[in-house]
Amino acid sequence: MDGGVTPKIPAPHRDDVLLAVASVAAGLLLWSLGVYSSPSRNLLPDWAALVPLLALGPMELLRRSAPRTTLAVGTAGVVADQFTVGNLATVLIFTDLMYAAVVYGKPAMARRLPVTTGLITVAVTIASVAWLRTPQALLIGVVTGIVSFGPALTGATLRNHREAAEAARLRAEQTALLAEMDRAQAVVAERARMARELHDMVANHLSAIAIHSTAALSIDSPATSREALGVIRENSVQGLAEMRRLIGLLRDAGAGQEAVAMPSLDALDALLEQARTNGTASGLDFVLLDERSPAPPGPGERGEPLPAPVELAAYRIVQESLTNALKHAAPGTVTVRLTHDRGAGGLLSVEVDSPYGDRPGPRAPGSGAGLIGMRERTELLGGRFEAGRDGAVWRVRAQLPAEEKAVRA
To answer: What pLDDT score was predicted for residue 18?
Structure first.
């Protein structure tokens, strides 16, 4: 009526059923043969020894599901057995119930029982010696320890081993899970890096192809169309070469593929020359101002190459900025400036200024992925990235840590 659900008692384990049947059968056999543990006791008739036996036997069925209850009934039964002629099977059932209470009971009970039974064993031994005043009185304490403390200690040892094994299994699963997460993150990071490389390498060529093909279709001039087709062919060939280079980097090194050099700042002159060719139709010119300190030679200075990650990031930022200028910049001069200020912590500064405003002729569409890629490259090296309009200029600025120790960190 109150919507409560009565907890379902699980079915007894098959081993527990066999244990209960065997224990009761053994006790009945001993009683029928007249084998008693204390035949000198005549307080009750002999059949009274069957009462504790028949009370404790069914408790074996609940030793896993209700260890607290079975231990309480078992304790009462073994005490009652002491007032009869006694049955060895009753005592053995009690020892198993004590063991099961420690193994299957709650952690608090499992911790308390070995201590409690140990104290009871000591107390019974002292009381027996004080009362009987004979060395044989020590046997009472020994029997008490064997019946109560021994099973409890054995159960605690087994439980500790099981818990240690379970903890080791969980740690192994957690380690495997963390390893899988690390692998998945590495795959995602590698895919993102490949996507950036693919975008940076190919977008410049495809943008030039899109601009000049649109010009060839919109301007009815044989000379203009021929010039546009020449630029399209040149960029198609270069784009295909870049794609082949990327595929070469992704191939298995064991296949005999030679390592391909990554682009560096030394190739900026060629990159700007290509941009001048592609931007002529849009009225764009490109200028490189390399203001890095030439002397004294050292890490991060001209004559000494920068760390490879910095070289690649700076090159790709310039490349993507030039691609964006080809797509969106107004007619004018695009300025690329490189500076390396050793007094500011060895930062390499990359600045690209493009004319901002309306432009005549065709305009290639943009997705915004270029700015995201440039920002990611800069932040991965611990640098700073800014991009936005400054009056009539669209300015891209990246500050990269040029020292080897900063890159390793």
So the answer is: 93
- Whether 323 is in a domain gets the answer yes
Long-range contacts of 45-52 (CB under 8 A, 24+ apart): 46/84, 46/85, 48/83, 48/84, 48/85, 49/81, 49/84, 49/85, 49/86, 49/87, 49/90, 50/87, 51/80, 51/84, 52/77, 52/78, 52/80, 52/81, 52/84, 52/87, 52/90
Q: Is the pLDDT of residue 204 over 80?
A: no
pLDDT tens-place string over residues 226-248: 777 777 767 776 666 666 666 66
pLDDT tens-digit series, residues 85-98: 989 999 999 999 99
Q: DSSP assignment of 215-272, as one string?
A: HHHHS--HHHHHHHHHHHHHHHHHHHHHHHHHHHHHS-GGGTPPP-PPP-GGGHHHHH
Query: 181 lies in a domain?
Result: no
* Mean pLDDT, the chain, integer: 80
Structure tokens that stand for 367 in this block = 């997705």
**Nearest Cα residue to 99 out of 173, 170, 155:** 155
Residue 180: its H or E element: helix 150-218
DSSP string over 195-219:
HHHHHHHHHHHHHHHHHHHHHHHHS
Which pLDDT value is given to residue 346?
74
Residue 254 in tokens:
């064991």
Domain assignment present for 199: no
Structural tokens at position 91: 């005592």
- pLDDT of 277-300, one tens digit each? 888 777 888 999 988 765 444 444
Q: Of 47-61, 79-93, 350-364, where does mean pLDDT reach its minimum?
A: 350-364
Looking at residues 304-315, what average pLDDT do you find? 78
Q: How many angstroms separate the CA atoms of 352 and 15, rounded? A: 80
Whole-number Å distance between alpha carbons of 145 and 148: 5
Indicate the helix (H) or strand (E) that contains 387.
Answer: strand 384-390
DSSP assignments along 260-317, one per residue: -PPP-GGGHHHHHHHHHHHHGGGTEEEEEEE----SS--TTSTTSPPPHHHHHHHHHH
Supply 24's token pair.
């009761």
The three-state secondary structure class of 116 is helix
Residues 296 and 400 both lie in one domain? yes
pLDDT at 250: 60
330 versus 119: the higher-pLDDT residue is 119
How many domains are contained in the chain? Answer: 2
114 within some domain? yes
- Tell me which residue range forms the domain holding 332: 261-409
